[in-house]
Amino acid sequence: MRNILLLQQHSPFNNSNGREALDMALALAAVEHSVSILFCDDAVYQLLPTVDQPDFGLKQYPRSFKLFSLYDIEQVYACLESVTARGLEPAQLNIAVTLLSKADIAALLSSQHQVITT
Amino acid sequence: MAEITVDGKAIPLDKHGYLANLQDWNTAVAQALAVAEQITMTEAHWEVVHFVRQFYVEFQTSPAIRILVKAMAQQLGPEKGNSKYLFMLFPQGPAKQATRIAGLPKPAKCL
Amino acid sequence: MTRFGLLLTSNGFASQSLASALHFAKTSVQMGHSIEHIFLYQDAVYCASADNDLPADEPDLSAELAYFCQQHHIPLLFCVTAAEKRGVVTAVKQPKHGYVAAGLAEFAMRQTNIDKLIQF
Q1: Of residues B1, B57, B108, B110, which has the active-site annotation?
Q2: Which residue, of A4, B42, C16, C64, is most buried by count of CB atoms within 10 Å of its CB?
Q3: Is B109 within the bounds of a domain?
Q4: Spatial separation of the C-alpha atoms in residues C86 and A54, rounded to whole Å
Q5: Nearest by CB: C105 against A17, A30, A115
Q6: Active-site residue B110, yes or no?
Q7: What are the structural domains, with CATH classification, of chain A?
Q8: So what's the pLDDT on residue B109?
Q9: Which CATH number fits the domain that encloses residue B76?
Q10: Does residue B8 fall inside a structural domain?
C-alpha cells in the first residue's frame, strides 16, 4: 500500500487529462492504495457545475467524482490560491473539498510515496 | 452497424453489442438484450438492472463488479451485495451483462 | 540500488518526453539500478501504434524503446482503454512490436514493487 497523490492541473475543456486522471485514481484506490487528489491551477474548473451543462459537449466525467467515497478516497483537496485567483467561491464547487494553502500543499506532497501529475 | 429488432423496430448497437443510444432503452429492449445474453429475466434480475441504471444516472459511469457489489451491499444489504449472488443471476459477468441489459455503455476493460 | 517504475503520459512524437525517458532508463540500468516496468498512459499510448511512418532522418524512438526493453527484459505496457479510445489498437489492429496491452489495474498493483515512480 502506497500513499499516491494525483495532482490535477488541467481544465476539463482543453484536454482529456482530467478524465483519464479520474480512471487512474479509481484504479489505484481499487487495489487499496491510499489515494489523494489535489486540484490545482485550471483543474479547479473541473469542480464547477459548468460541466453539468448540456452544451459542455464532452463526457460529464466530473459527475463521477461523487464515486470517491465509494472507493474510500477521502483526501480530496483543492489549492486555495488557484480557487481565489480565478474569482471562485468555495461554495460554488460541486463536491466537498478541503482547501489547502501553499504550505499545506508542500506538507501533503512530502507525505507521499508517489505523485502522478496529470 | 449491428442492431437488435424490438417490436418491429431496429435498435442500433455499438460494436460490442451494447446499445448505441442510451435513450433507446425501455423494458422491451432490455428483454431483447437479455435474450441475446441467454438470460431469463426475473424480479431479481430487474432489481439489478434498475440498480445499475440508477448508478449510471448518478455517477455517469457503468459500475465495475467490485463497486457494484459494494454499492448494492450499502443500499440493498449484504445478501444481495455480494458477487456470488450477482454471478448466480448473471453467470457471464454481472457488470458486463447487467450493464448491457440496462442499455448502458460497456464498462472499461482496464479497471 | 533503486527500483524505478516509469510512467509515460505525454505524446512521444510531439515532445521530447520519450527521448528523455529512454535516456533516463538507459542511464539507470548502466548505473546498476533497475527499471521494473514502463507504463504508457494518456497521449503516450500513441507510441504503441504500429502505423507510425517516419522519414529516415527522424529518430524512431518508440522502436528504440521497445528494443531497449526487450534487451533488458523490462515489461513495456500500455493502457489498452486509452489506446482503443485513440484508435491506436483495435480488434484487428495489433500494437507495435514489443508493446504489451495492460490495464490500469495492473499499473496500480505494480506500484507496490517499486521504490520510485518517474513520470515523463
Answers
A1: B110
A2: A4
A3: no
A4: 24
A5: A30
A6: yes
A7: 3-117 (3.40.1260.10)
A8: 63
A9: 1.10.10.370
A10: yes
